[in-house]
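Encode chain A's predicted structure.
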Amino acid sequence: MIMPFDFSAARCECSSIPHQIYFQCLYRSEIILPKNLLYPEGVISSLIMPPVLILRWIAFFWGRGVMSVNSLYKPATLICLLAVLLSSCEKITTGEPGRGDMFPRSALSELMSDAVNQPKLEGKTLVVNFWATWCPPCRKEMPELQRLSDAMDKNRFMVIGVSVDEDKNLMREFLLQQKIRFDNYHDVDRHLARDLLKVRAYPETFIISPQGIIIRRIVGAQSWNSKAVHSLLESVHKGEGLEKSGGLSG
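Encoded structure for chain A:
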């Protein structure tokens, strides 16, 4: 099934030149891509060898009539294909945490240490959203996350925002203006987002089991307050239905 990816739903802040080129190639192509070709996380989970990825890209674009023998020799095409290869190789070597890996709760707890009433995370299913005020999709998504937070049982579930803004006051001002009440913290040096979790595009949201295991990494703004998402989170909390999508597209 071909799944569309809305590039207005995410802002890329890639840490390497290959990833920046890769993201821009996708954005400028304006082509609907298969879900497992959208971003290196999905690619690496289904393909082992980057050369196979290159062949799949060529076959896909060729089948859509947007690539020909002549276009293969165009500099822009070659740069895009090389960026895919390099970004895929980097994904393998950087050890990005994914489904089934432990979420670095200790680092999250450090961010929360300045809170007057530090909440307890033990035994709760977490929805951890990384965002910034300079990211339009992030700003648009926040009210939806607030509605999710309001709807879920506070004793079993918790929505947490982690801002990567340089200025903490910008974060506070935005939260006050938008009446966002769920807990938000400031990752001032991006140690958690960039160094530990390798977040490259915002917003990115993690669904974490009560045992601290990453169940999903979701890039881009989502419709969080839906029955499908509520069902997914309930299943995660019970340790069931980990293959459900919950209607989430990332």
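The first strand starts at residue 11 and ends at 12.
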